[in-house]
Amino acid sequence: MDLLCDTIMVEEILPRMHPISILRLGAASRRYNALVRDPDFAAGYWQRAGIFFQRSSWPAARPPLFLTGDDDDEEEEDDWPEPATEYMFGEDLGFLPGPSAAEKAYLRSVGSADNAGNVVNIMHSAAGLLLCSRGITLPMHFYVCNPVTCQWVALPELPWIPHQWRSGLLTVDTDEDAATASSNLKRFQVVLFNHPMHWLKPGGCIDLKLFSSDTGQWKVMQLQPPIRIEEPPYSWSPILVQSGTAYWIMLKAKDRAVAYNSVNHSVRFVGLPRRLADAKMNRIIGERHGGGLRYAHANSLVFEVWDLQTKSDGNIRWKLVHRVGVTDILEWNPEAVGFLVESSIIKPVGFHPTDDDVVFLGMPGAVAAYSIEYGTMSIQCTHHSSVSYEYPNVVIFHKLQSIVVVHGVFSRDIDMNGPPIPV
């Protein structure tokens, strides 16, 4: 009987409990402690995979959507469908603090919606943590949080106009040797970019604001690109990858991108495969699982995927790894036809972090996971945008580990006698 009860507990009850409740349960008795520390249970519970879809926040703030299926909300056509999942806690980011009384008063004075100041945007993710922003008034608020444990830390406020700083990048120190054996502290860094339109001005540069959890303070850094940037990128927001690099694909220069590396704070140009005709707004660059760049683009006729590979002679070249006609994709996936009535253009918006076979594709009204091997598509979420260039990036992270915020750094340990969210 005890064995049956333990089986029900492990398979049905514990997976639905909040991580903090799991830790408290383990402290209640030796029996429960053995259950929550069982290697098989821990492997499945404490490391989870998840993907967030962040819609563009212009002209109105839009909340992120956790991709778990198409749970459409028919009653509120102007809103995103509510996320429904058994695989993530805190996916709505509702645990982050809301606007202050002063912010609410300002929003009321300008006629904003009651919930406008509550919308949180995901800016980037790394090592199971999210960099988020909230607020349209001075100052803008930035947070680093763990959606599994609902733990967060607020970064120091910055006294400047927030619309100039819409993009940010998060890197987390995953070197175990750099952390103490007792607390396993995780250091992190946040980088904010100025708007690319400032790069184009005479004497313009890439102006960075850097926050380090070691110092708890912001600092300023200015970088001059190796070649003057004389044209804007096709998107003001960079494409951010897990390794800590930001890419801006150029609009007029068809075959190159500006790359900023947050590890050594370097800026360089990256050559890209020759762009398809009429595909200037339908391009994405990212990383393959295990490393290496991947690039995809599409127009109304064809969809291509390219990998950057090192040849036997040591030279690095782009290799075409997948090419398929859009009509073939629609023939194999009739459920997608309804989303492409107004336009037959599909837009690659991201790559799966652990499965190189999957590319996420945006369509008017939906986002789908496309299999390179089988040519099949699975609708991940629906939305209400009909303009192709409005599709945002897919913010991707994996191995969402139970890392708790402690005094601006992250630790796997939790003080059960203290508050659940120390700030």
Automatic annotation (TrEMBL):
Pfam families linked to this entry: b-prop_At3g26010-like (PF24750)
Record domain F-box protein At3g26010-like beta-propeller: where: 120-364
Protein name as it appears in the record: F-box protein At3g26010-like beta-propeller domain-containing protein
Organism for this UniProt entry: Eragrostis curvula
